[in-house]
Amino acid sequence: MKITSGVLKQLIQSKERERTDIELKSFDKITQMNDKNRKDIACEIVAFANRNGGKLIFGVSDGGHFEFDKDIDVDKLKGKIHSICFDNISPVIEITTEYIEETEAKFFVVYVPKRKSIPHAYIEKRSNHEINNRIYYIRTSHGKRLVTDGQLQWLFQNTGEPNYAFDFRIGFELSKQLDMIGGITPWETMS
């Protein structure tokens, strides 16, 4: 989905502003960088990568309004995000960014890819740059949350795409107007 002010406006006005693939943040979260904001951004990126990837979008206030009056230094924003990905996340996540400026809005989009191998973690380092702590997050429909032991085990054991070892079918019953009748019905036997 291409991010535009129209798409964001629809998202902001919907009951479900943030989803498993989208998180909205104020520009202040990244322009006023401190340890708390840095950790929050890193953990959001980790959570997206450990699920299916997603978009972290800066430029929407907590009240759900566009922040078009902010002075934005795009190169600084990119530098801060890349610094977070290299210094606070292991393994490193190669994100891409996009700055969009329209008449009624400006926003900065961080595109987070789905993990390709072992799960990503927010890391804390000692003064000698050794990793002191790893914290694993995953994205849910309610935002980021810590992974459970079972989820962490699954994330480490299943690094690739799902492998369906058995054939399966799903049946849909449709009316002549192509409206679904009933629900989804799995067939028990294969022919």
Tell me what you see in this structure.
This protein is of the alpha+beta class and about 190 residues long. About 25% of the residues lie in helices and about 30% in strands. It has helices spanning about 5-15, 30, 35-50, 75-85, 150-155; strands at about 20-25, 55-60, 90, 95-100, 105-110, 120-125, 130-135, 135-140, 145, 170-175, 180-185. The strands form 4 sheets. It has a 4-stranded mixed beta sheet. A 3-stranded antiparallel beta sheet has the order 3-6-7. A two-stranded antiparallel sheet has the order 8-9. The longest helix is centred in the first third of the chain and has 16 residues, at about 35-50. It is flat and about 65 Å long. The two termini are about 40 Å apart. The mean pLDDT is about 85.
What's the topology here?
Blueprint: H1 5-13, E1 22-25, H2 28-31, H3 35-50, E2 54-58, H4 74-87, E3 89-90, E4 96-101, E5 106-112, E6 121-125, E7 131-135, E8 137-140, E9 143-146, H5 149-157, E10 170-174, E11 180-186
Parallel strand pairs: 1-2
Antiparallel strand pairs: 2-5, 3-6, 4-5, 6-7, 8-9, 10-11
Notable features of this structure?
191 residues; alpha+beta; Methyltransferase, Cobalt-precorrin-4 Transmethylase, Domain 2; 4-stranded mixed β-sheet; flat
Roughly what fraction of the amino acids lie in strands? 25-35%
The CATH architecture would be 2-Layer Sandwich
Largest sheet: 4 strands, mixed
Shape: flat
Run of helices and strands: HEHHEHEEEEEEEHEE
How many domains? 1
**Model regions low in confidence, pLDDT < 50 over at least 5 residues:** none
Could you report the average pLDDT, rounded to the nearest whole number? 84
CATH class: Alpha Beta
CATH topology: Methyltransferase, Cobalt-precorrin-4 Transmethylase, Domain 2
Count of DSSP strands = 11
Query: Can you count the helices?
Result: 5
- As a percent range, the share of helical residues equals 25-40%
Distance between the terminal alpha carbons, to the nearest Å?
A: 38 Å
